[in-house]
C-alpha cells in the first residue's frame, strides 16, 4: 500500500465524517451520508490495520470510526445490550481463542503441584524443613479448616474475591509484559497448594484438604489459568505477530485481554460466593464437591459453546475491533 496516496485519496471522507459526528440535529440526508461514510471509513481502517504499521494513522482512524459508530448506534443500543454482548460474545470468544494457552497453563500447574505435593507427602525431612512439627499439626488440625469459617460468609466472600482478582490481574499483566513472569506466578501458586496439600496428606487429612479446596478451587484456579494464558498470548504476539505489524497485533490482543479481565471479575465473584457459602457449609463433602463441579463444568461449557460459536462468526474479543467495525455492509470504495 502506498500510504501517502491512500491518505490523500481518503482523507476528505474522514474529515467529512469527523464533521458530521460533531454536529447535532442531523437532517435525514446527513444521517444517510454519515452511515455511508462510516462504512467506507470502517473498511479503510481494516485495510490500514492489515497493511500499515503507521500507529498515528491507526489511532486517528480508530478514533474517527469509533466516534462515528457511537453516533450511528447511540440511539439504538442501550447499555444492557453492550453488557449482554460482552457476556455472550466478546468474553467467551476471547477466552476460547486463548484456550490452548490457558489449558497448557492449567496442565503445567496441576503437573507441578502433583509432583511437589507427592514429594512433600512422602518425605518427613522435607515436611520438617518446611514447617516445625507443632506448626504442621496446627495447620492440619485447625488452621486450614478454620480459614474458611473465621469470618462471616459475606465479608469472607468479598475478601476472597478481591484477593483472587488481584492474583488473576497479576498473572494477566505479567504474561502480557513478558511470558516468564506469568509462569513464575503460576509456579508460586502451585507450590503453595502442593506444600499444604502434601502436609495434609502426610498427616492423614487429605480428605479434608480436597473436600475444602475442590468446591471453589476448580473455578477459581481455572480463572487464574485463563488470566495467565490470555496474558501470555498477548506477550507472545510481540514475539510472533503473524501477518499483522507487531504493534497492531499486540494492541489487538491487549484489547481482547481487557475483555477477559472484565469477564473474570464476574467469574471470580462466583467462585468467591462458592468458597464463602458452599465450601465451609455443613453439606456432605460429596454434595459440596458436586456443586463445585457443576459450576466449573457450566463455565467450561459456556466458554467452549458460546466462544466457539462467536469465533466461527469472526469475533475476537477485541473491544476496539467490535466497537469500531460493526459488520455493516462493507464498502469497497
Plain-language structure description:
There is one protein chain. The chain has helices spanning 3-21, 28-51, 55-73, 79-97, 99-122, 124-130, 133-146, 153-177, 179-202, 206-239, 246-277, 285-312, 319-324. With 333 residues, the chain is mostly helical. Helix 2 runs antiparallel to helix 3 and helix 9 (179-202) packs antiparallel against helix 10.
Short description:
The protein has 333 residues and is an all-alpha fold. Helix content is 83%, strand content 0%.
In total, the number of strands is: 0
Distance linking N and C termini: 15 Å
* Residue share in helix: over 70%
Average of the residue pLDDT scores: 86
The succession of helices and strands, N to C, reads HHHHHHHHHHHHH
Structure annotation, total helices: 13
Keywords:
333 residues, 13 helices
How does the SSE layout of this entry go?
Blueprint: H1 3-21, H2 28-51, H3 55-73, H4 79-97, H5 99-122, H6 124-130, H7 133-146, H8 153-177, H9 179-202, H10 206-239, H11 246-277, H12 285-312, H13 319-324
Amino acid at each position: 500500500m502506498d500510504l501517502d496516496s491512500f491518505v490523500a485519496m481518503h482523507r476528505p471522507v474522514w474529515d467529512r465524517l469527523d464533521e458530521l459526528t460533531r454536529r447535532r440535529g442531523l437532517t435525514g440526508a446527513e444521517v444517510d451520508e454519515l452511515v455511508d461514510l462510516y462504512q467506507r471509513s470502517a473498511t479503510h481502517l481494516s485495510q490500514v490495520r492489515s497493511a500499515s504499521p503507521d500507529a498515528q494513522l491507526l489511532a486517528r482512524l480508530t478514533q474517527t470510526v469509533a466516534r462515528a459508530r457511537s453516533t450511528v448506534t447511540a440511539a439504538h443500543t442501550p447499555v444492557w445490550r453492550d453488557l449482554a454482548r460482552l457476556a455472550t460474545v466478546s468474553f467467551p470468544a476471547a477466552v476460547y481463542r486463548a484456550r490452548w494457552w490457558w489449558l497448557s497453563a492449567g496442565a503445567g500447574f496441576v503437573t507441578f503441584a502433583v509432583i511437589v505435593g507427592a514429594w512433600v507427602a512422602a518425605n518427613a525431612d522435607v515436611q520438617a524443613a518446611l514447617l516445625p512439627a507443632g506448626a504442621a499439626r496446627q495447620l492440619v488440625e485447625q488452621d486450614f479448616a478454620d480459614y474458611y469459617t473465621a469470618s462471616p460468609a459475606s465479608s469472607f466472600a468479598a475478601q476472597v474475591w478481591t484477593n483472587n482478582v488481584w492474583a488473576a490481574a497479576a498473572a494477566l499483566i505479567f504474561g502480557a509484559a513478558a511470558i516468564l513472569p506469568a509462569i513464575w506466578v503460576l509456579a508460586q501458586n502451585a507450590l503453595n497448594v502442593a506444600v499444604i496439600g502434601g502436609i495434609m496428606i502426610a498427616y492423614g487429612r487429605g480428605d479434608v484438604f480436597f473436600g475444602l479446596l475442590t468446591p471453589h478451587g476448580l473455578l477459581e484456579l481455572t480463572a487464574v489459568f485463563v488470566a495467565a494464558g490470555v496474558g501470555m498470548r498477548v506477550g507472545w504476539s510481540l514475539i510472533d505477530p503473524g501477518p499483522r505489524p507487531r504493534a497492531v497485533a499486540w494492541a489487538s490482543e491487549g484489547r481482547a485481554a481487557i475483555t477477559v479481565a472484565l469477564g473474570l471479575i464476574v467469574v471470580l465473584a462466583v467462585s468467591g460466593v462458592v468458597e464463602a457459602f458452599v465450601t465451609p457449609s455443613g453439606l456432605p463433602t460429596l454434595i459440596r464437591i458436586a456443586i463445585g463441579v457443576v459450576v466449573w463444568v457450566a463455565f467450561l461449557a459456556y466458554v467452549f459453546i458460546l466462544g466457539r460459536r462467536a469465533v466461527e462468526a469472526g469475533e475476537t474479543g477485541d473491544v476496539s475491533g467490535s466497537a469500531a467495525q460493526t459488520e455493516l455492509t462493507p464498502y469497497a470504495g
